[in-house]
Amino acid sequence: MKKTSILLLSIILSACASPTPAAPTATAALPPTATQTPMPNALWISPAVPDVLRETAQRAGLPIVDAPEIATQKLDTADSGSLWIYALVAPFPTVTDGVSSADLFSVWSGGSFLTGSGQPLLMAESTLGALTALWGKPAPGAVRTVLKEQILDSAWTQPFSPAIIPFEEIQPKWKVLTVDGQSPVRKDFDAGMYPLKVTFGLTGAAFELPASNREASKMTTVVLTGVTALVRATAFTMETKGVTRPGELIHDWLANADIAHISNEVPFDAGCPPPTPGYKNFILCSDPKYFELLQSVGVDIVELTGDHFADRGTQAMLDTLKIYRDNNIPYYGGGANVDEARKPVFLDVNGNRIAFMGCNGKVSYTIVKATDIQPGAADCDYEFFANQVEDAVSKGYMVIFTFQHEECYHPGPCYMHEEGFHAVADAGATVVSGSQAHYPHLMEFRGDSFIHFGLGNLFFDQMTYELPDGSVIDETRREFIDRHIFYDGKYLGVELLSAMLEDFSRPRPMNERERAQFLTEYFAYSGWMELQPTPIPVPTVTLTPIVLPSP
Predict the structure, then answer these.
(1) Chain segment 298-323, per-residue pLDDT in tens
(2) Orientation angle between helical segments 125-135 and 101-108, nearest 10 degrees
(3) Contacts of residue 513, Cβ cutoff 8 Å, sequence gap at least 6
(4) Less Cβ around it within 10 Å: N or C end of the chain?
(5) 418-454: string of b/e by CB count within 10 Å (b at 16+)?
(6) Which CATH number is correct for 43-214, 3.60.21.10, 2.60.40.10, 3.40.190.10, 3.10.50.40?
(7) pTM of the full predicted structure?
(8) 546 has pLDDT over 60
């Protein structure tokens, strides 16, 4: 009520008061305001940005400008963003396996050069820009910039030169060197311990950058091995020192692979007699309990192209196939009949589609080959297998083709090796590898294929071998174990692991001196190095048909 009375009194007093004319007011003139036109979105990309990341940015559709000051978005090195991994590489036939980060920084600052070549580091302009942002300007002469497309050819020009490239540019003719023991092509790679990495960031949020150019989930490693025959002195050692002893020193090489391959040449047979050391017994078999060795090293696939698979007859072969099936281990290159023996194994691991195929190309061994009704190894019908390789490649598979072939005790290739190996390589096989060689053989790049004509033994008792002239050699102790790397549907290349056979059964990793000598010799045999080692005599061997007992 009180508020209402006050309101009414105010109205009455207003009505009674005489009106006063309002004084004219002057309107102040306001200065004109400029209309701010927003700068259109535009992107500046630093010259340090690698090509793949640059292409990602360009696909975002923003106009690209040449100067950072007129850009609304900038893609450049940064403290956070997309982690880009680079690789220190050298031509494949490089003996050096790795360097320390101190050595690498010494080169950058003008110190000694890497790999003993006396050559500067090769790299593209963008890589130089990225590493300069990371380490500062390199010393004069420490780096030579080369067009990305020319780096590989420039590096292979004698003397060989090291290079630094983005991870996505790794290809088979490069050898990836470790830095402080870390390699981006290995499964145990730790980016936190690795110096060759640069982070690129985008100011603003116009589009999303990939997290990295290297994703562990897209990598697949395949380890290929040579001859396994758990017989004679090898088997005797297993009986006396433990079934898993042969694999103890190289266990991690096989077990840590996504796909570990074993070429087991002999059947498992419950009636196999106790092993006797010596070289006179050529009818071979293994006690089924020796299968534990294969399990202990993590075998994922078995090749059955070997000559001795048929040594103990039909039932032993069928029993062996059952052991593999019961343990969910696929096999190829041999089987219960010709159709199964020829059948490839298709695997899809971490997004990489890989096919395994194999055959026995020996003309002197016919009884061991599979038929419509008889188990055995697949015969090398090259027309058939070339068509099979082409078909697999057309479906997106990278083909690994392995051989049992004629044997020789020199670096090879032997007899008809080149014809068969080249046939499947020319059909499109990514990797062609010889599983038959007791003596390691040389290597070759053929088109897009990597060929290794023979890896040597894996688990077999050949500490020495007597040649036809009576001389004895021990090169049968030396072994290649090839670790092939596949990434995001692409073959990156191979790491040559090397071992020395001990105790008639157990390979051990070579020491630094042994490995340097081994690689130097085989890079020379392969025609990749000018300095040739002392040649090893190549004996003349006459092939004679070998008649095995009927199954």
Answers:
(1) 999 999 999 899 999 999 999 999 99
(2) 110
(3) none
(4) N
(5) bebbbbbbebbbbbbbbbbbbbbbbbbeeeebbbbbb
(6) 3.40.190.10
(7) 0.89
(8) no
Q: Hey, CA dihedral for 374, 377, 383, 386, is it positive or negative?
A: positive
Confirm if 130 and 143 have CB atoms less than 8 A apart. Answer: no
What distance in Å separates the CA atoms of residue 201 and residue 437, rounded to the nearest whole number?
A: 51
Q: Which one-letter DSSP state was computed for residue 548?
A: P
For residue 544, which phi and psi values (nearest 5 degrees)?
-125, 140
Query: With contact defined as beta carbons under 8 Å apart, do 480 and 474 qualify?
Result: no
Tell me the per-residue pLDDT of 352-362, one tens digit each, with 9 for 90 and over. 999 999 999 99
> What pLDDT is recorded for position 110?
84
Q: Long-range CB contacts (< 8 A, 24+ apart) of 470-474?
A: 473/409, 473/439
Please state which of the four CATH numbers 3.40.50.12780, 3.60.21.10, 3.10.580.10, 3.90.980.10 is assigned to the domain occupying 218-525: 3.60.21.10
**What's the distance, Cα to Cα, between the start and end of the chain in Å?**
122
142-168 pLDDT tens trace: 999 999 999 999 999 988 999 999 999
141 DSSP 8-state letter: T
**Tokens, residue 492:** 């990156």
Query: Are 397 and 353 within 8 A, CB to CB?
Result: yes
- Domains of the chain, by residue range, sit at 43-214, 218-525
CA dist 239 and 244 (Å) reads 10
Above 60 in pLDDT, residue 35? no
Average pLDDT, the chain: 89
List pLDDT tens digits, range 368-414: 899 999 999 999 999 999 999 999 999 999 999 999 998 999 998 99
Q: What are phi and psi of 424, to 5 degrees?
A: -80, -30
